[in-house]
């Protein structure tokens, strides 16, 4: 079924009782040409592009819970591409371009909204770093502009630019093409598209083991629903990547941390863009439902608990109240955590592993939602061809041995 | 917020007095130049990152300023024991008895 004005009208007349399921839920087969472990946006997108661009249709996505129930459904959905290093610019800009056409590509509204992402500078160091980003991005043809504090306030009127703040706003970097998208819709849209092309999407199917043959190559995966034979496995398990890769005996340069977000009660449109501040640790936008969506920092320690410390959220809410005094009396409705997989250089890992047939896409940490499209696209090409896609190549696992790190942590100290 | 017992101060103090310092018992190779690139990468970057029992270092920055070790369950975040730097890794069997959840 394709969505159109006509189908919506027809459904409206019948009280919206006739919408069919958007993807099939088949029983797992005993063998596939390739298996994707992890039904987040990156995994579902990978399956979609494998089927759509590489003709691999006898494949499955295995998800231990429900699709999009991991970080895809827990994130603050900030999308931007103004990273510092050329390798990062290439993959994040590739992703941003795919976001621009994703809704029509999938015939599913992912509500991509390029409302502008503004990153606040509060210290001399911030100002220098952001200006360096603006120049680097300009050379790469990526939009990013420097705003004075007054210009920042003109762009986002609720912003407090009083010099009396503990960390006054000295200026901002603005990417106008940056914005947000609807997190669930991204998972559902890719799932629907992949399913229509023949991909089996299997929920409640945790992978518990990775079997290797006498040569060491992958021969299949054990799951809670039985053994599934396959020669190609793509692990896209975000915070659980270390756990899944350990099943194949591979140690990863990853640590998993809780990262929290919270939303307020819904109110009328009051906040026009996305504002991020790394220095005071606050990220905020308003969802189309009207809730303020606020992102906090990670906890100090590794954990799989999916809840973070309250003092971390308190710190963020303090910063939000300073920057946007009009929100001081807003009530917060929900607070949750996701488990993010962080690499030493804060850049992702996409590509082959020491185990033949085993591929991995991970390390997106606190900021991979924005890359869902591009990451899935280049990872699919990597699995299909058995060799890294040119945009994925610099993000190899070997970079930690060769020393060719892509140090976005030092470059930006940016979370999302 | 975790309550962490510093084995030097012998007091339970709130987490914000401490700084997390990563996986414990990762020994720096005594002769780095004899290491292969892969071995050196293993020391610098590869971590066990387990779901369950984790041995980790903490630094009592706003207290005695010493480093020590903590055994914690990364599913429940419950701290099972803390011990001084240089002391051997406690036997996991003796720790689960103290009631790590799940
Ligand atoms: C609070 C928060 C805020 C964030 N804000 C932003 C933001 O504003 N912008 C941005 O770009 N990024 C943000 N991120 C990061 C972003 O959410 C992630 O990088 C991205 O969503 C990762 O997508 P994924 O598909 O790789 O992972 P996930 O959506 O987590 O999918 C991985 C899936 O693997 C499954 N899985 C794990 N183990 C197994 C197994 N053994 N068998 C089968 N399935 C398994 C999990 O259940 C999960 O569904 C944020 C993250 C959090 C937690
Ligand atoms: Zn102490």
What features would you describe in this structure?
The complex is a heterodimer of chains A (416) and B (102). Chain A is an alpha/beta fold and 416 residues long. Helix content of chain A is 30%, strand content 22%. Chain A is built from 11 helices and 19 strands. In chain A, the strands form 4 sheets. Chain A has an 8-stranded mixed sheet. In chain A, a hairpin with a 2-residue loop joins strand 10 (218-223) and strand 11. The longest helix of chain A is centred in the first third of the chain and has 21 residues, at 86-106. Chain A is globular and about 65 Å long. With 102 residues, chain B is mainly beta. Helix content of chain B is 13%, strand content 32%. In chain B, the strands form 2 sheets. Chain B has a 4-stranded antiparallel sheet. A two-stranded antiparallel sheet of chain B has the order 1-2. Chain B is globular. The chains are: A alpha/beta (416), B mainly beta (102). Chain A binds chain B through residues 240, 242-243, 251-256, 300-305, 309-311, 344, 400-403, and chain B through 1-2, 15-16, 18-20, 22, 37-38, 41-42, 44-51, 54, 56, 72, 74-77.
The gist of it:
The complex is a heterodimer of chains A (416) and B (102). Chain A is α/β, with parallel strands linked by helices. Chain A has 11 helices and 19 strands.
Could you list some keywords that capture this structure?
heterodimer, A: 416 residues, alpha/beta, 8-stranded mixed β-sheet, 6-stranded mixed β-sheet, B: 102 residues, mainly beta, Folate-binding fold, two-stranded antiparallel sheet, 6 strands, 32% strand, globular, disordered C terminus, binds flavin-adenine dinucleotide
């Amino acid at each position: 079924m394709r969505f159109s004005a006509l189908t919506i009208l027809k459904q409206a007349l019948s009280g919206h009782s006739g919408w069919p399921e958007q993807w099939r839920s088949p029983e797992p087969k005993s063998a596939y040409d390739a298996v994707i472990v992890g039904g987040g946006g990156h995994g579902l997108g990978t399956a979609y592009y494998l089927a759509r661009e590489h003709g691999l249709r006898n494949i499955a996505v295995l998800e231990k819970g429900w699709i999009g129930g991991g970080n895809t459904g827990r994130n603050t959905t900030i999308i931007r591409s103004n990273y510092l290093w050329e390798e990062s610019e290439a993959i994040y800009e590739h992703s941003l371009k795919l976001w621009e056409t994703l809704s029509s590509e999938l015939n599913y509204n992912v509500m991509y909204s390029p409302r502008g992402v503004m990153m606040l500078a509060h210290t001399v160091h911030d100002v220098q770093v952001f200006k360096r980003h603006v120049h680097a991005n300009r050379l790469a043809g990526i939009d990013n502009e420097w705003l004075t504090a007054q210009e920042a306030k003109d762009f986002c009127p609720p912003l407090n630019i009083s010099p009396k703040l503990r960390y006054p706003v000295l200026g901002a970097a603005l990417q106008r093409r940056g914005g947000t998208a609807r997190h669930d819709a991204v998972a559902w849209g890719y799932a629907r598209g992949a399913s229509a092309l023949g991909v089996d999407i299997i929920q409640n199917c945790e992978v518990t083991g990775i079997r290797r043959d006498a040569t060491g190559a992958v021969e299949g995966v054990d799951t809670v629903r039985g053994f599934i034979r396959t020669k190609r496995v793509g692990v896209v398990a975000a915070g659980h990547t270390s756990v899944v890769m350990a099943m194949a005996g591979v140690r990863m340069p990853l640590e998993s941390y809780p990262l929290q977000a919270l939303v307020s009660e819904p109110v009328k449109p009051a906040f026009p863009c996305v504002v991020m501040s790394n220095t005071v640790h606050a990220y905020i936008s308003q969802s189309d439902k009207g809730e303020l969506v606020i992102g906090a920092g990670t906890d100090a320690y590794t954990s799989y608990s999916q809840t973070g410390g309250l003092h971390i959220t308190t710190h963020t809410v303090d910063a939000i109240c300073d920057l946007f005094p009009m929100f001081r009396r807003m009530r917060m409705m929900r607070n949750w955590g996701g488990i993010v997989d962080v690499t030493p250089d804060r850049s992702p890992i996409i590509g082959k592993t020491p185990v033949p047939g085993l591929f991995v896409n991970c390390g997106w940490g606190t900021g991979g939602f924005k890359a869902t499209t591009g990451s899935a696209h280049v990872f699919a090409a990597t699995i299909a061809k058995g060799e890294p896609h040119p945009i994925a190549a610099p993000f190899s696992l070997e970079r930690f041995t060769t020393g060719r790190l892509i140090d976005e942590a030092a470059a930006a100290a940016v979370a999302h | 917020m975790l309550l962490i017992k510093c084995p030097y101060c012998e007091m339970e103090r709130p987490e914000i007095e401490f700084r997390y310092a990563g996986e414990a018992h990762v020994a720096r190779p005594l002769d780095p130049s004899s290491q292969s690139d892969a071995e050196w990468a293993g020391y610098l970057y590869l971590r066990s990152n387990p779901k369950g029992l984790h041995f980790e270092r903490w630094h009592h920055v706003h207290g005695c300023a010493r480093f020590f070790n903590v055994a914690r369950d990364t599913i429940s975040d419950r701290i099972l024991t803390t011990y001084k730097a240089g002391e051997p890794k406690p036997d996991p069997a003796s720790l689960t008895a103290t009631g790590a959840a799940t």
